[in-house]
Structure formats: structure tokens, C-alpha cells
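call fold(seq) -> C-alpha cells
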Amino acid sequence: MKTSGQVLSQAEERLGEQLSATVSQFYRGLDASTAQTIRDAPTPEEAARIVEALRRGRPLEVLLVGGSAAIGAVLGALAQRFVANASVAGIPVMAPMGFAGPLVGVASPIGVSGRSSMAAGGLSFSAGAALYYLITRQQVLP
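ret:
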């Protein structure tokens, strides 16, 4: 007989697998649609313009990356403040948490702007926590 914890763990695993499959299917559909749009371009120059636009990204995507970085820095500083500016061996305890952003971004089946947003937000979170620690720590007088 399974414990309630084992049942919950199994349900969470199934939910994660289903969510991953749904996201992957969504992006495969977008990829196919994009490929068809490029193929249907009336001239090679038009197809090249589409590819260039995809490579550059939309202005909103660029703002999303910048916004993610700014919010990450603020949240990192607030998180470090929340834990009373604690540190272990001189490293702010919240700083390593920011590395989750780039790791999730790399593992996610999303576009480069989404991955960049996760990386920028996560690394800025670490920077915000570190800056808060450095600016507000108490200096020990000799």
C-alpha cells in the first residue's frame, strides 16, 4: 500500500510530464507554422526578412528581457533583506537561488527571448542579493 506522500509524488510527476508534453506540442505547432510562412514567402528576399525578424526578436521581447533583469535585481535585494541579510562564508544566502533562472531557461522548450528573460532575471536576482548584502552589511571594527 502506498503512503499519501508517494501518491502525491506520483501525481506531481504525471502532472509535470503532461505539462511538458503540452508545451512541447504547442511549440512544435508554432515551429511548423513559422516554417510554412517562410516557405510561402513570395521571394527569397521576403523569406530572408522573416528570418531576420525572427533572429532580432520583437521590441516587446527585448523589453521583456530588460524588465526581467530589473525585477530580478529588486526581488533579489528584497529576498536578501527578508532573510535578515544572512550569509554563509561571506556569500549571501539568497544569491545562489538566482541560478535557478538560467537552469530553467536552458531546460525549457521555449524561444530564445524567453530563455534570455529567465537567465537575465535569475542572474540579476543573484546580483541584487549580493549588492544588498555588500551595501547593508555591518562592518566589524577592530
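Helices lie at 4-39, 44-56, 59-82, 100-107, 112-136.
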